[in-house]
Specification:
The chain is built from 14 helices and ten strands. It has about 375 residues and is α/β, with parallel strands linked by helices. Strand 1, helix 2 and strand 2 form a beta-alpha-beta unit. Helix 10 packs parallel to helix 11. The protein is globular. The chain starts with a helix and ends with a helix.
């Protein structure tokens, strides 16, 4: 059963025709995201139109990388200070399982598509958790310096592990997700077997042993903006980050950087609403979510960053970059030319194994 305050807020929204009245909602809210080009795309597509429409003040927090740990601590302290939080799907599943995120009914708490298609049908199988409102399909991929790779630019994910052909520093995220999968792929494990192998202690050691072969050549990053900056500064020859961040450094900053799409890891990102909010804060959060995840708003975000909108009805509305005037479709991870060899991220696996593998990975890093 849903918590009582969610039912009350839902009832208020229903009585108001899907929108709670102004006096039932606070006039300030904290929205947590990832910073950089991604937060800028949300600011332009969601926050600014919502603030103009409602007069509410939105405070941006860039702590999404630490969302699970911080929400656990807030819940334990009984002081939840965040109103809406942007998280990856596997973190949403964990937060939902732990009772730290609200369950959402897509057909009453999210907007229908313009043609009347229900939100549940419009989002389809991207609704991977009862607490998760999908926003974008993105990928983690590699960018490389075109002026540092010679006449044979990298075109295979395993080129990341080839320090002889491509000498120089690489940047990898300071967490096991994606790194462990790529390591196993490049150690001979078949794509379809990666998660079965990674579920075993032996498989985890195999992945870490492969990563050991380049450990001395790695600069570890924690923020999505780190790799684009390292590439722009020429401090790394190649590095992983979110494809939209690489789009920014390539197309907006015009740096000598290109994409390595091979074995890009598809993932979902979206919103959760924390449990423990007052009725007024919850009503505001639900009102914002209804607004920010409608068909047009999700398409609008793709005007500023190369992430695919999570609603089927939004895809046909994706056009040109709002400032550069270039067609955004070829820069999407889902474009056929970019998606010839993708790796599908397993949300359930990481929801189940994240804490244990995190501990092993951090211990390995400290060696």
């Amino acid at each position: 059963m849903k918590p009582m305050n969610l039912l009350m807020a839902t009832t208020a929204l229903a009585l108001a025709g899907g929108m709670a009245s102004a006096q039932d909602m606070v006039d300030e809210m904290t929205i947590v995201s990832w910073g950089g080009a991604y937060s800028n795309s949300q600011q332009k597509a969601y926050h600014e139109p919502y603030m103009e429409k409602t007069g509410v003040k939105i405070i941006n927090d860039e702590s999404s990388a630490e969302a699970v740990a911080k929400l656990r601590a807030m819940n334990e302290a009984g002081n939840v200070t965040w109103d809406v939080v942007d998280v990856v799907a596997s973190d949403a599943i964990r937060l939902c399982d732990e009772g730290l995120a609200m369950e959402i009914d897509p057909d009453t708490q999210l907007a229908a598509a313009p043609d009347g298609t229900s939100a549940a049908d419009d989002f389809g199988n991207l609704l991977v958790s009862e607490c998760f409102i999908p926003q974008i399909v993105y990928s983690t991929a590699f960018g490389y310096r075109t002026d540092l790779v010679g006449d044979t630019p990298p075109d295979d994910i395993c080129d990341v592990f080839d320090t002889e052909t491509y000498p120089g520093k690489r940047s990898l995220e300071k967490r096991p997700i994606n790194n462990m999968e790529w390591a196993l792929l490049c150690d001979g494990v078949a794509k379809e077997d990666v998660y079965d192998v990674l579920a075993t202690a032996e498989g985890q050691e195999q992945a870490l042993a492969k990563l050991d072969t380049i450990k001395d050549d790695v600069i570890w990053w924690s923020a999505g903006a780190d790799t684009p900056q390292l590439l722009a500064d020429g401090e790394v020859v190649m590095g992983s980050t979110y494809n939209g961040r690489l789009f920014s450094v390539i197309e907006e900053q015009k740096q000598p950087v290109a994409m390595l799409w091979d074995a890009q890891v598809f993932d979902l990102d979206g919103w959760i609403i924390p449990t423990g909010l007052s009725e007024e804060r919850l009503a505001r959060a639900l009102d914002y979510i209804m607004f920010a995840t409608d068909t047009q708003r999700l398409a609008d975000q793709a005007k500023y960053i190369s992430y695919g909108p999570a609603r089927a009805s939004s895809a046909p509305l994706v056009g040109q970059h709002a400032e550069l005037g270039i067609d955004m479709a070829p820069h999407m991870p889902t474009d056929p030319a970019n998606a010839k060899n993708t790796f599908l991220y397993n949300y359930e696996f990481w929801a189940d194994y994240r804490d244990d593998i995190d501990a092993k990975f951090q211990a390995w890093l400290a060696k």
